[in-house]
Amino acid sequence: MVESAVNTETLQITNDDAAFVLGKGGRTKQKICRVSKCAVELLDEQEPTLEFTGTPAQRRKAQKYVRCVIAQRTGAVHLTEEDVSEDCTVLTVPQLAIGFVTGSKGNFLRTLEDEHCVIMCFALQEGMEDNEEVSELMIFGDRPSRRAAQLSVMSVVEAKAPGYYTDRWRESGYTFEDKADLVGDWGTSTFELSQEELSYAIGSHGKTRKKVARSSECVVQYINGVVFMSGSRRQRDKAREYLKLLLDQLDGPLSLDVRGRDDATVLEVPHECIGYVTGRSRETLGLVEETFGALTFFLAKSGDGQMEELVIFGSARARKGAELMVMSAVERKAEGHYTGKLSDWKATTRGFDVDRLTMDPEDMAYARGREGSTKAKIATASNAILEFVGPMAFIAGDAEERQRCRDYLGWLLEQKDGKVHVEAQGRSDVTELQLTGDDDVGFLLGSGLAEMRKIEVECGVFCMMLDDEDGAHRLLICGHEEGAAYSVSGRVKALRLLERLVTERNVRSDWHGGGKGGHKGGWRERSRSPRRASYTSGATSAWSSSGPRDRWSSASRSGGGGRAMWSRGVEAGAWKRGEGAAGAGAFWSSRGASARSAGALPGRSPTPPWRRGTKAAGT
């Protein structure tokens, strides 16, 4: 009971340390919060003070990570035996590979931190002798995250120093795991691949390996031709089987009986729709797999050849999401194939299930939004799977998620008709922002609309404007995740950003990455010409009205910034030029707002290939 009690502690730090702990845009602090699961706030008083809120274990971890981050600012990090005994993996790295692992200004190491949700640093253990030939990399986090990061680093080291780890594996079968992590049936299975098999198993940019890992829920990494699979016995068995199925495809179509399996779904697809569903070089079906973390195969033809069987492997949620996405594509090619004999249905089960709802074409087009942005926003905020298949909306999730998605969808359509009635009192998924006057409303529905839409995407929420009978204005921030002011996502973060947008609208906020400008009553951006984008035809263009970016999950938020060394690539939450407001344009347009899609590519004339011919589908 005592160990689980939530409490608060404070730690006073210097101004220089505060800037280092906070990081660019608060991202270093966000990472500490994610890994430790402790709420960390920087109090702006006479002297900077960090406030830690969580269980004793969470506060202890967060404070340890803060000490590691601060120590990196001034020199070497020193850790005690107690520091590395709880949630740390220690990996020996040869000196010749240190720079390769770290990357320019630490970018590569920071990228691995973001990808695997860990804290990493090179450090010296108390009582251990310094070794000029090797250094010890400390990896902090939960067991699966630490193991994934460890294997990723081992793979990188082997590229610089072949055989450094795998020679020992070949000699003794050693898998480089701490005994403390070998609890229950957790373990590591290994086997070796030929060079031809390895190239196919990795896939373009490692996508095939990642698909196997996500669908099996197992940590999978290739180290100099050796496959390391870490997880429970069940997870490792699935990963091995899925890899074998992938490699069996090299010899031709698969013949597989999946009846009675709890990790597989079979969907019949009309033969004339196969090319449309698969796409050029399998890019379109690959998008389905990437979106939901599933693995799909077309089985060898049987019967009269009018139908082909698509088998989908993965968790129940991943399989259902992939199945509905494929069904949606088929219905655009063969109208009524799946929905012709279906009627509305509301499941009564508390667990994972699917609701069906027939929608008016105009309502569906509005709910979809341009590029499917509005649909994706509602799905992310409700934490449900929302897919439009023909004339029907399919909502998948547990009972709470399905009802939340129904509510948001209903509010959106009421908003379209200008008759919004929301009983927000008592709801745990709604946070309110009180607006002081018509100027604030006009700003959010006018020049600030695009920024509000970007905040929705960044925080995974759905916002609605309400006018009360007494003339007061409220902005409802809806979403399943509450979060914190500086967390990666959530309603509280959205509230902070929206309050800042309203109160400081004459200044381009630092999270926007712009300069200053504007006038009283709202700032106005300078004109910018969108950058040219390259558009691909073929597989991606085969998808529907919702376009290649129509995904129910929110955009990736990985990125870097803050410490002296941070991650390469696009910064988390950085607004891309050319992005605008999401879907649901009719309501906002009536207020004089120009709505553009939050996920839209910054295209110019002529019309990109994947945008052609989509108007009939309702976007």
Q: Please give the largest β-sheet.
A: 4 strands, mixed
The spatial strand order of the largest sheet comes to 4-6-7-5
Gyration radius, in Å: 26 Å
- Strand-pairing-aware structural class: alpha+beta
Distance between the termini: 54 Å
Poorly predicted ranges = 506-619
Overall strand count: 19
Shape: flat
The helix tally amounts to 20
Question: What does this protein structure show overall?
Answer:
- The chain is an alpha+beta fold and 619 residues long.
- It contains 20 helices and 19 strands.
- The strands form 6 sheets. The protein has a 4-stranded mixed β-sheet, sandwiched between helices.
- A hairpin with an 8-residue loop joins β6 and β7 (134-140).
- α2 packs antiparallel against α3, α5 runs antiparallel to α6 and α12 packs antiparallel against α13.
- The longest helix has 19 residues, at 56-74.
- The chain starts with 6 loop residues before the first strand and ends in a 30-residue tail after the last helix.
Q: What would the keywords be for this entry?
A:
alpha+beta, disordered C terminus, 19 strands, 619 residues, 3-stranded antiparallel sheet, 4-stranded mixed sheet
